[in-house]
TrEMBL record:
Keywords: Isomerase, Magnesium, Metal-binding, Phosphoprotein
Entry superkingdom: Bacteria
Catalyses which reaction(s): alpha-D-glucose 1-phosphate = alpha-D-glucose 6-phosphate
InterPro entries the record matches: A-D-PHexomutase_a/b/a-I, A-D-PHexomutase_a/b/a-I/II/III, A-D-PHexomutase_a/b/a-II, A-D-PHexomutase_a/b/a-III, A-D-PHexomutase_C_sf, A-D-PHexomutase_CS, Alpha-D-phosphohexomutase_SF, PGM
Any one Gene Ontology molecular-function term assigned to this protein's record: phosphoglucomutase activity
PROSITE patterns the record matches: PGM_PMM
Required cofactor names: Mg(2+)
Pfam families registered for this protein in UniProt: PGM1_C_vert_fung, PGM_PMM_I, PGM_PMM_II, PGM_PMM_III
Family: Belongs to the phosphohexose mutase family.
Enzyme class name: isomerase
Name recorded for this polypeptide: phosphoglucomutase (alpha-D-glucose-1,6-bisphosphate-dependent)
Domain Alpha-D-phosphohexomutase alpha/beta/alpha stretches: 14-152, 183-289, 298-410
EC number(s) recorded for this UniProt protein: 5.4.2.2
Protein's organism: Jeongeupia naejangsanensis
Length: 544
């Protein structure tokens, strides 16, 4: 095995965003582009002699990238690589495998909910030994290396069969091709009441899980149809495709329309299923859908927190909970009632890692259809669906009944996110700068018929490692707890995406349409930021 040292030149813009480095496939196909980033990881994190987990969501370019990374790992002295068969490992499965096998880190190949295929997106992310996304300190260091890199190391070829389970040698390095589902399925069986869920299915209840032709398919099929006895065919779009069937693998009401139609009774031959769910490209997001309601992710976190002790893995209660800043305060109300801490972090799962490691929180979530717990260090789509199935099976209540009972007890936080995608980057920055400039004048003034109580640019001081993260989103909070939040996306690959998050808490009026309940805030959010004037956009491209 000859190690080659290949001269290279730095590329601009290899800065990881909210969740790794995401670019168009065509950008990743440039010679040396992926290699530079991977070498920057090896130069930043000492992985000589280490065990590394490797896999991706199966999108176009996944297999090419797996081969390159295995050859670079061998050249950089890695001792052992655990790679998912076919190059497939969901994001939560990577986290699970890192933890279970005591690996030193992992590389995940995914652009998550972004579309795939030759014209779609690709991405790469480094996870640390706790199984979670590398914190900013490490991603900043990786980025610094990419700016000055002059060479990378690689071996010419790696002889192993990615499609056949087993142990291979690549020079001195071991490559273990592992079943992508086994470790994850075993962990799920430790957390949930499989007997109760099995009995629920055996009683004739039905489920539709839309894997959106992405990574959750094999996991959902094994667990739901295989181990839990859901009728074969309950998992739809269950085979991962390189282009996700041409769809946007994003489980939200805008992109999982077939599922929503089925749950409203539209296309199902025997009426709507009892339980609806979907997951994203790399299986870390989830959407839970009842016959009547789509469960908003913020509500999902709150309902799970309130009922966690019904799930065996959480029977002893929760140490605390955490939510990203734009996520609604529904879970805060539950935490207060339970007498546990509730942490507010910046957007992105990496900010939950320290809190989870320190045992300060058990559950965490984001408004972007992300929910998770201390069982791994990533958000976890199939896990969230099993949580809800466990609650439904244990209580005998439907998704809609659980949700309505929750609102009746704790009040309802009407919530919506309006995205203005692919807007001009200069205009987007001007909009945010304009809001920042206005902040000092806002407190005490009236907007949407209410008084503004707080207006700031959210900053976070990590209570564990004391790192400081500034400029994490503009918050406008009203006297009654309503909020408007603005931030720019850190995962897009086309211009800029402005996200406007809207929240209105209500104690008594519980059955309004969310967009109607939020109408005054929506109008105010457009006016305050002059969205139309600065971006030319009359309306958002996606509403969730
Ligand atoms: C988005 C979401 C954020 C999530 C991130 C990664 O980031 O808002 O909550 O953690 O995607 O999710 P941004 O910066 O575009 O708003 V995943 O499932 O795409 O890895
Ligand atoms: Co994802």
């Amino acid at each position: 095995m000859t190690i080659q040292t290949i001269p290279t030149r730095a590329f601009d813009g290899q800065k990881p965003g909210t969740s790794g480095l995401r670019k168009k496939v065509t950008v990743f196909q440039q010679p040396h582009y992926l290699e530079n980033f991977v070498q920057a990881v090896f130069d930043t994190v000492p992985l000589a002699g280490a065990t590394l987990v490797l896999g991706g969501d199966g999108r176009f370019h996944n297999r090419v990238a797996v081969d390159t990374i295995v050859r670079m790992a061998a050249a950089n002295g890695v001792a052992r690589v655990l790679v998912g068969q076919g190059g497939l490992l969901s994001t939560p499965a990577v986290s699970c495998v890192i933890r279970k096998h005591g690996a030193d880190g992992g590389i995940i190949l995914s652009a998550s909910h972004n579309p795939g295929g030759p014209d779609g997106d690709f991405g790469i992310k480094y996870n640390i030994g706790n199984g979670g996304p590398a914190p900013e300190k490490i991603t900043d260091a990786i980025y610094a290396v990419t700016q000055t890199i002059t060479e990378y190391r690689i071996v010419e070829s790696a002889e192993f069969d990615l499609d056949t389970l087993g142990r291979y040698s690549v020079g001195d390095m071991i490559v273990d091709v592992i079943d992508p589902v086994d470790d994850y399925a075993e962990l799920m069986q430790q957390l949930f009441d499989f007997d109760a869920i099995r009995a629920w299915f055996a009683a004739g209840h039905t489920l539709r899980f839309d894997a959106m032709s992405a990574a959750s398919g094999p996991y959902a099929t094994r667990l739901l149809e295989g181990l839990l006895g859901a009728t074969p065919g309950s998992v739809v779009n269950g085979v991962p495709l390189e282009d996700f069937g041409g769809h946007h693998p994003d489980p939200n009401p805008a992109h999982a329309t077939e599922l929503i139609d089925a749950m409203r009774g539209g296309s199902a031959p025997h009426g709507a299923p009892d339980f609806g769910a979907a997951s994203d490209g790399d299986a870390d997001r989830n959407m839970v859908v009842g016959r009547k309601h789509n469960v908003s992710p913020s509500d999902s976190l709150a309902v799970l927190a309130a009922n966690a002790t019904l799930i065996p893995g959480y029977a002893n209660g929760l140490a605390g909970v955490a939510r990203s800043m734009p996520t609604s305060c529904a879970v805060d109300v539950v935490a207060e009632e339970l007498g546990i801490d509730c942490f507010e972090t910046p957007t992105g799962w990496k900010f939950f890692g320290n809190l989870l490691d320190a045992g300060k929180v058990t559950l965490c979530g984001e408004e972007s259809y992300g929910t998770g717990s201390d069982h791994v260090r990533e958000k976890d789509g199939v896990w969230a669906v099993l949580c809800w199935l466990n609650l439904v099976a244990k209580t005998g209540q439907s998704i809609d009944e659980l949700l309505e009972a929750h609102w009746a007890r704790f009040g309802r936080h009407y919530y919506s996110r309006h995205d203005f995608e692919a807007i001009d980057t200069v205009a987007a920055n001007a909009l945010v700068d304009g809001l920042r400039a206005k902040l000092p004048t806002l407190v005490g003034s009236q907007l949407a018929g209410k008084r503004i109580a707080l207006a700031d640019d959210f900053a976070y001081d990590d209570p564990i490692d004391h790192s400081h993260s500034a400029k994490q989103g503009i918050r406008i909070v009203f006297d009654d707890g309503a909020r408007i939040v603005y931030r720019l996306s850190g995962t897009g690959t086309d211009g800029a995406t402005l996200r406007v998050y809207l929240e209105q808490p209500e104690r008594d009026r519980l059955d309004l349409d969310a967009q109607e309940a939020l109408a005054p805030l929506i109008a105010a959010s457009r006016e305050l930021a002059d969205i139309k004037g600065l971006t030319g956009r009359e309306a958002p491209t996606v509403v969730t």
